[in-house]
Write a structure and sequence with these properties.
The structure holds seven protein chains of seven kinds. Chain A is α+β, with helices and mostly antiparallel strands. Helix content of chain A is 59%, strand content 12%. In chain A, helix 1 packs across helix 2 and helix 4 crosses helix 6. The mean pLDDT of chain A is 84. Chain B is mainly α. Chain B has one domain. Helices cover 80% and strands 0% of the residues of chain B. The mean pLDDT of chain B is 79. In chain E, 77% of the residues lie in helices and 0% in strands. The C terminus of chain E is likely disordered. Classes of the chains: A alpha+beta, B mainly alpha, C mainly alpha, D mainly alpha, E mainly alpha, F mainly alpha, G mainly alpha. Chains in contact: A-B, A-C, B-C, B-E, B-F, B-G, C-E, D-F, E-G, F-G. At the A-C interface, helix 1, helix 3, strand 1, helix 4 and strand 2 of A face helix 1, helix 2, helix 3 and strand 1 of C. The structure holds sodium ion (NA) (2 copies). One sodium ion (NA) binds next to helix 9 and helix 11 of chain F. The site of one sodium ion (NA) has 5 residues of chain F, from helix 9 and helix 11.
């Protein structure tokens, strides 16, 4: 099932890229998709961690929110950088990710890193070590809003 | 270990797509920029990524070293051979129009062969170089 | 192409350019490698995002848009990975961040629960 | 009887073939020497056979290496004279060499004879060259083939001498001679030797003067001062080599080339455009006197002879510089005369070294009683150098002097008279010591005995030749006349 | 016009990033800057592609993006372990 | 035969290329060498046929893939390129037999097949540069040959070979890049990469775009000059030649720089010269000045070298100066001299370096002192060395004399008579450094180290003798050198604006 | 639009020159062989931009010659760029391989130190 989904995704990817829908290229695309799936299997990447298609339908709900977060913090950091006195207060903190799957945890960590102003510098078990450009960034991360979001995205709760 | 959680998840997700993208570039060489070379580079890049993420053994599993070394001349042979085919069939070197009844198709086949040759050589070379460096590092 | 879309795309492109320049500025201005990563990540996210969006608007619903989206996705998935790896490498090489405050101590020393494998 | 053209080529081919034969016979000394003598005899025969054809001036054009660079030979009177002298003296020199090399147990004799033969081939090439390119080719070949002979001993001194020899001869020829040739080619459009010259009226006196300078000093083998010192340096070589350098081939090739260039490249009127008592006269004159003065102060016999050669060569150059036809004749004849005289002297010096191992003039008291033949021959040679009858030396000098008087070139006249006195000043004392001084008691002079017979035979022959040439100067005189077109 | 402006902005940023790459001080600063340069170059490709009506430049951009990623990771891995293909599974201790 | 005939141009390149590929599959030294030998020996026939074809019935144009130029890549063979093709092919064919012994002695075993593969690749690249009529294609071939050259140098036994190779890689790449930048400018200007086409359009572009054209000219000149080691851009050459495997040095010294020179001539006389009036620019003066500098400075350095291979390398720089001098003089005789010297120097240098490889093989040293008395031990080798050495000096009766004769005539035709003295003067310096070696080799007592040394096997001796003989033969029979070169020069100069 | 293109081309040339000078500077100024190679790659990169926009006059004034030319004789620029990239990559790879072996042979990749070691040897 997962393999089929992967194959389908890959083929869609092909068609989207190609733009030339000659029979020759279409078939070639199909074959290539299959080849890739086989390769993925051989690389042992076609598992839940590597291709969590269960989560895909939740993407539209999570990523727009993330994008908005990114925009906000980007604006904040921009102001900091442009501020003549450069009023930063670099802070290290540890936040706990409540996700159960590695995928979920990874998503959380990446989301933190994606939002300007915070970077996941280390993962130890479920504890994410985070470097924040300003103290407030660290603090409201600790408040755990994003953690809950990600957990929901992961399909927990 | 912790490096590998994020690296692993991220990598696992994109690996198959990288390979597909490589093949896409390979087959669309005559439309956009590209063809064999980028395809080869990207393929090799994928192997490298596997290597640095999951270790050399994993890389060897999908790209055996001996095979890579063999691929280098093989690709060139295919490339040059295709040209010679044109020569043998009485046309100029690299003139593929004779490879099929309809010159246009002939050209297409020719291009396909050539691009395949390039892909094989480039992928082989790059991967072999990567392996060589790893060996040196040891 | 309607004026509205045009204007929108222009705004996006302007914003993108703005964020890119700011990010690069941060790369130069900020004091140490960790803080500089933040500058860089502005470029990777907001800057790239807006530029791509702007171009996508220009291109309309076409192949180009698809590719732009892929480009964006690439950045979204790989940017953090790279940054993270970089931070890891820094710590591994004992490149310590300049800190105004370290809030780790308070929250250390909790045993982690066994995570069931996916 | 082969055709003259063939003979021309034979004259060069015979010694080369000889060299090959000698190399092959290397392991068996007697056979090797036999080959040497045979080759020399054959060569002389070939050259003699050419003599009747001189008037016709036969040619042999091998082929054109490149436009303007033809490998070609042509028989000219002067060349004939030079070829005769060289090939004739080679026979004598070979006989002498056999005696000398064996008596002194010299190493690497095969190489010695091979190089000797090649040197002779080169000499023939110079003598019979039809154009400057061919001449230059063999001129360099002569330098290179004689280098191993000069460095024969292969000790440090020989190596140093070799450097000077090669550096100076090859150097001057490449840096001065060659540009002169190129310039000539550009101006005249040809390099062929032509009676009356090829440069006449083609260039300004300045250019002509520069070219003349390049030739005069570029032809280092003529040993004009200050480019003479390779000759004394080369004295380290075995005596037969010295003979080859001074009499048979090398220096003669130098003056021959100068004569040839003067008469057949510049031509009388081109030279005349430089005016009387021009710098060549001065250079030549200075060399004559200076070299004689140096010789006067030498105690080592061979060095003394070397400097005498330097001065004698400049007589010949002087003969050219005077620009009178008769003096040209004199110059030509002096080539032959000096060749015979000087080879006699060197044979004698070598004979003394071989028999008594003496090298310094001061050691020669009474040596004449022990080695009458040798010292007799030496006396004859000395007279030839001074230019007194009954030796050939007189004729050449006399003609040159006449020319100088005709052209009222008093500078030259003075030079000749002064130098004659100087020559007498350093040669006669030697003869006097040898015959009229008491030998030092217990000195080497007491062990009786001449040198081995081949040596004595050789030097007697050349001495006789020196005298004969005075009484029967026919052939050289005729040739010299032909040369200046009478 | 916009694209020209964007191209200009990108060039400026490139200059800044390169200055950082040159100034360092740590090798990681250089890597970071290098990565950023890569990103900017990709955007420049995209923009110039648009500017000159050559959308196929985007493929070039994607390619470059992938290689940029792989390159950076490889460099980091190398600095971390002095060994490109250090086997992850053998790395247990922190 | 008739089927092959029209495809000779491409075969000239494809044969060695395919050879390289096939050798690439091989894991054993014997078959690899055999194949390399076979390939090498076919090339002269192809080149000869091409030369004959060109001389009898004019230039040949071959369109890769059947695309008409300037759409597609054109292989263009005219007298000049055929001349150089023949030279390279013959050098390769003559020297390859000498390779095996030397390579087996100097290079690790597992590298042998690899080496022949790279060598054939290099050969293909050099031939490609010479035969292609496409500016960018020339760049590709240039890099193919260069990269393989770096490898050939790097496999030298001495670790300094690595550094030499690296330095060459840096310089060479800069050169190639500058060349391709220059080509790029021309491409922007004319929209074509076909050389002939380019030449045609530059003329029209000159009016408005002289600055750009001059810039391009500068880039291309510097770029190529780096590859041909024109003084003062020769820094890479001495070490490269000194530490590369002896046989690699033989091949490179005889061909690589020569092909670069060919390319320079091509650009000056067939592309820029056609479009631009060189008399207006000081190019000639600059080239001549640099050439003279090379002839003297490099020769002087050579005099003080104690490693004979390095000495010969510096002499190469000087000799290249002679060739570029001819290019700079750019008159009938001068250019002829330059072209002739390409051949003459290639042959005599090949002879000298083959001799060095033989000496290293037998005596294990190439230092001046190490060569003491070697003449007694290896008489034939040293005889050949001596002959070629005199060729280097330019004594009459050797091919070197012919070259210098024409160069001197050319200088006088230009009215630059002092150059005549400089030419002969520098050959005097050559006399010094060659003389040093000869003196040591012939007149010193052999040292015990070389007691067992003897002349090399026939596989080396024969090529050596052939090359030395050629040095003498071409000093007398010049119809194949001067004969062709004069015509080529006439055409090239005739084409100038 | 043509002014835009010419503008963009100006960028091309600015970058080209910038990269050339920068790369060359690094090659010359740095003793570390890896850095030299990096500089070299930068230097080579300058070429790619040059080939992006063919058949237009440098400085972007009106296209020269009759346009017919620039229509037909255009080997696709990206093919050229691509080839240049291939060459660049190959060179870099070879260079790095050399550096690795140099490091093994000398224990350093600082040119000055290596030269010093060779002088002593
Ligand atoms: Na971030
Ligand atoms: Na050379």
């Amino acid at each position: 099932m997962r393999y089929l989904a992967l194959g389908a995704a890959l083929y869609a990817f092909w068609l989207a890229l190609s733009g030339h829908y000659t029979p020759y290229l279409m078939t070639a695309g199909a074959i290539c998709a299959v080849v890739c799936v086989l390769a993925a299997i051989r690389m042992r990447t076609a598992d839940r961690e590597g291709f969590p298609y269960e989560l895909f339908w939740r993407v539209p709900t999570y990523y727009p929110w993330l994008a908005f977060e990114v925009l906000k913090s980007a604006w904040a950091v921009a102001k900091l950088i442009l501020h003549p006195r450069l009023p930063i207060s670099p802070t290290m903190t540890v936040v706990r990710g409540s996700q159960r799957t590695t995928t979920g945890l990874a998503t959380y960590a990446n989301s933190i890193t994606l939002t300007p102003g915070t970077i996941t510098v280390g993962v130890n078990g479920n504890d994410l070590t985070v470097h924040a450009l300003v103290r407030d960034g660290a603090v409201d991360l600790e408040s755990g809003g994003m953690d809950r979001r990600v957990t929901r995205f992961e399909g927990g709760a | 270990m912790s490096l590998d959680l994020i690296l692993r998840v991220g990598t696992k997700l994109i690996l198959p797509f990288i390979l597909l993208f490589a093949l896409y570039v390979q087959f669309h060489g005559d439309y956009g920029p590209g063809g064999g070379f980028q395809a080869g580079v990207i393929t090799a890049g994928m192997v490298v990524l596997v290597g640095i993420t999951f270790g050399l053994e994993a890389a060897h599993r999908i790209a055996p070293q001996g095979l890579m070394q063999f691929m280098v001349p093989l690709g060139v042979l295919i490339y040059a051979g295709t040209g010679v085919a044109g020569l043998i069939l009485g046309r100029n070197y690299l003139d593929y129009s004779v490879l099929a009844h309809d010159p246009a198709h002939g050209h297409e086949y020719g291009i396909i062969f050539v691009e395949a040759g390039v892909l094989i050589t480039v992928a082989g070379t790059m991967t072999a170089i990567f392996y060589a460096f790893v060996e040196r590092g040891r | 192409m309607t004026l509205a879309v045009d204007v929108a795309s222009w705004i996006c492109i302007l914003l993108g350019s703005f964020f890119i320049v700011v990010g690069a500025l941060g790369l130069v201005r900020l004091p140490d490698v960790f803080t500089r990563m933040h500058g860089a990540s502005i470029i990777d996210t907001a800057g790239v995002g807006f530029l791509v969006l702007g171009m996508a608007l220009q291109a309309g619903a076409s192949l180009v848009t698809f590719k732009l989206v892929f480009l964006l996705a690439l950045f979204f998935f790989t940017g953090p990975v790279v940054t993270h790896a970089l931070a890891q490498a820094c710590l591994h090489e004992n490149v310590r961040p300049i800190l105004a405050e370290d809030r780790r101590g308070a929250r250390e020393g909790r045993d982690e629960p066994e995570r069931r494998q996916p | 009887m082969p055709a003259p053209a063939t003979l021309l080529l034979l004259a060069i081919a015979i010694p080369l073939a000889g060299a090959l034969g000698i190399a092959l016979a290397g392991s068996r000394p007697n056979l090797r020497e036999a080959v040497t003598l045979l080759t020399a005899a054959l060569l002389f025969a070939a050259v003699l056979a050419l003599l009747p054809a001189v008037g016709a001036r036969p040619e042999a054009n091998l082929y054109e290496v490149a436009p303007g660079l033809a490998l070609a030979f042509k028989l000219e009177p002067l060349g004939m004279l030079f070829a005769l002298v060289a090939s004739g003296l080679w026979i004598v020199n070979s006989i002498y060499s056999i005696g000398y090399m064996r008596a002194n147990k010299e190493p690497r004799q095969t190489g010695f004879y091979v190089c000797f033969a090649i040197a002779l081939a080169s000499t023939m090439g110079i003598a019979l060259a039809k154009n400057l390119f061919t001449l230059f080719l063999f001129y360099e070949a002569l330098t290179l083939s004689t280098y191993p002979l000069v460095t024969h001993k292969q000790n440090a001194e020989a190596v140093r001498a070799g450097r000077i020899y090669l550096g100076l001869l090859l150097g001057t020829s490449l840096v001065l001679f060659l540009p002169a040739i190129i310039g000539t080619y550009i101006i005249a459009g040809t390099l062929d030797f032509t009676p009356g010259g090829i440069l006449g009226g083609k260039a300004t006196p300045l250019v002509i003067g520069i070219l003349l300078g390049l030739f005069a000093f570029g032809i280092g083998k003529a040993a004009l001062m200050p480019l003479h010192f390779w000759l004394p340096a080369a004295m380290v070589a075995p005596t037969p080599v010295s003979a080859l350098l001074h009499a048979v081939a090398v220096v003669k090739a130098g003056v021959f080339t100068i004569l040839k260039v003067a008469t057949m490249i510049f031509g009388a009127d081109a030279l005349a455009s430089l005016g009387n008592s021009s710098w060549p006269t001065i250079v030549a004159g200075t060399t004559v006197l200076a070299a004689s003065l140096v010789a006067l102060r030498q105690d080592n016999l061979k060095r003394l002879l070397a400097y005498s050669t330097v001065s004698q060569l400049s007589y010949i150059v002087l003969g050219v510089a005077i620009l009178a036809p008769i003096s040209m004749v004199g110059a030509a004849m002096h080539i032959a005369a000096h060749a015979l005289g000087k080879i006699t002297l060197f044979f004698a010096a070598g004979s003394i070294y071989t028999a008594a191992h003496l090298t310094e003039v001061s050691e020669l008291d009474g040596i004449g009683r022990r080695m009458p033949w040798t010292m007799g021959a030496f006396a004859v040679g000395a007279l030839a150098m001074i230019g007194l009858p009954p030796t050939a030396g007189f004729l050449g000098k006399w003609f040159i002097l006449t020319g100088a008087m005709q052209t009222a070139n008093w500078l030259a006249v003075t030079v000749i008279i002064l130098s004659t006195l100087l020559n007498a000043g350093y040669f006669l004392p030697i003869v006097f010591r040898a015959f009229f001084r008491e030998p030092p008691s217990g000195g080497a002079a007491h062990q009786a005995g001449e040198a081995p017979w081949p040596i004595v035979l050789a030097l007697t022959a050349t001495a006789t030749g020196t005298v004969l040439l005075f009484f029967a100067p026919g052939i050289p005189y005729e040739l010299a006349q032909l040369m200046i077109g009478r | 016009m916009m694209f020209a402006a964007a191209a200009g902005a990108i060039l400026v940023s490139l200059a800044l990033a390169i200055t950082r790459a040159i100034r360092g001080p740590t090798v990681f600063d250089r890597v970071l800057a290098g990565n950023t340069v890569g990103t900017l170059a990709i955007m420049l490709l995209a923009v110039v592609g648009f500017l000159t009506g050559r959308p196929e430049f985007l493929d070039l951009g994607l390619t470059y993006g992938l290689l940029n990623l792989i390159g950076t990771l490889a460099v980091l891995k190398f600095f971390r372990h002095g060994d490109l293909a250090y086997d992850a599974d053998t790395e247990r201790q922190p | 035969m008739s089927a092959v005939w029209p495809h000779l141009p491409v075969l000239q390149v494809v044969v060695p290329l395919l050879g390289a590929v096939l050798v690439g599959f091989m894991r054993h030294e014997k078959p690899a060498f055999a194949l390399a030998l076979l390939v090498n020996w076919t090339l002269p026939f192809i080149a000869g046929a091409l030369l004959w074809q060109v001389l009898t019935s004019g230039p040949i144009s071959y369109h890769l893939g059947g695309w008409e130029p300037p759409w597609g890549i054109e292989y263009r063979v005219d007298a000049l390129s055929a001349f150089v093709l023949a030279l390279i092919s013959i050098i390769g064919a003559v020297t390859i037999p000498a390779a095996r012994q030397s390579i087996n002695f100097e290079v690790e075993d597992w590298r042998h097949p690899w080496f022949y593969c790279i060598y054939l690749l290099c050969l293909a690249g050099l031939l490609g540069i010479t035969i292609t009529g496409d500016a960018f294609n020339a760049f590709v071939f240039l890099e193919i040959s260069s990269l393989s050259t770096y490898v050939m140098i790097a496999v030298g036994a001495d670790r300094r070979a690595l550094v030499a190779s690296f330095q060459y890689l840096i310089m060479g790449t800069i050169g190639a890049t500058m060349y391709v930048i220059g080509v790029g400018l021309l491409y922007l200007l004319t929209g074509t990469l076909n050389m002939a086409d380019m030449a045609g359009r530059l003329g029209q572009a000159w009016a408005g775009q002289s600055q750009t054209i001059i810039t391009a000219l500068a880039f291309i000149t510097v770029g190529i000059s780096l590859k041909l080691a024109l003084f003062p851009l020769h820094g890479w050459l001495p070490n490269a030649y000194a530490y590369a495997p002896s046989w690699a040095t033989v091949f490179l010294s005889a061909t690589a720089t020569k092909v670069a020179i060919y390319l320079l001539i091509r650009y000056y006389f067939s592309i820029f010269g056609v479009a631009v009036d060189f008399a207006a620019l000081p190019i000639s003066e600059i080239i001549v000045a640099l050439s003279l500098a090379a002839m003297f400075v490099a020769s002087f350095v050579a005099v003080f070298e104690t490693d004979v291979k390095r000495m010969l390398a510096y002499s190469s720089v000087a000799q290249i100066g002679y060739i570029t001098l001819g290019i700079g003089l750019a008159d009938q005789a001068g250019l002829t001299g330059g072209l002739v010297h390409i051949v003459n120097h290639a042959l005599m240098k090949a002879a000298l370096f083959v001799a060095m490889s033989a000496i290293f093989l037998r005596a294990g040293t190439v230092t001046l002192d190490g060569l003491a008395g070697i003449g007694r031990k290896m008489p034939l080798t040293l005889t050949a060395f001596t002959v070629a050495g005199f060729g280097l000096i330019g004594t009459p009766g050797t091919s070197g004399f012919i070259s210098k004769w024409y160069l001197a005539i050319g200088a006088l035709e230009r009215g630059w008579w002092p150059i005549v003295f400089l030419i002969v003067g520098s050959s005097l310096i050559a006399l010094v450094y060659v003389g040093r070696v000869l003196e040591v080799a012939w007149l010193r007592e052999p040292s015990p180290e070389i007691a067992k040394a003897s002349d090399p096997p026939l596989s080396i001796l024969l090529p050596l003798m052939v090359l030395a003989a050629a040095t003498v033969y071409l000093g007398f029979d010049t119809q194949w050198t001067v004969g062709i070169a004069a015509d080529v020069a006439r055409d090239l100069i005739g084409g100038l604006k | 639009m043509s002014t835009l293109i010419s503008l963009a081309q100006h960028y091309n040339y600015i970058i080209t020159i910038f990269l050339m000078m920068g790369g060359l500077y690094i090659v010359v100024a740095r003793g570390n062989m890896v850095k030299k190679l990096v500089g070299l790659s930068i230097f080579q990169t300058s070429v790619y931009l040059l080939y992006i926009e063919p058949a237009k006059i440098v400085g972007g004034t009106a296209p020269i010659l009759d346009p017919a030319f620039s229509i037909y004789s255009n080997p696709l620029p990206h093919v050229l760029i691509l080839t240049a990239i291939v060459v660049g990559v190959a060179t870099l790879a070879l260079g790095l391989a050399l550096v690795v072996r140099i490091n093994e042979a000398y224990g350093t990749i600082e040119e000055s130190e290596i030269i010093e070691m060779d002088r002593e040897a």
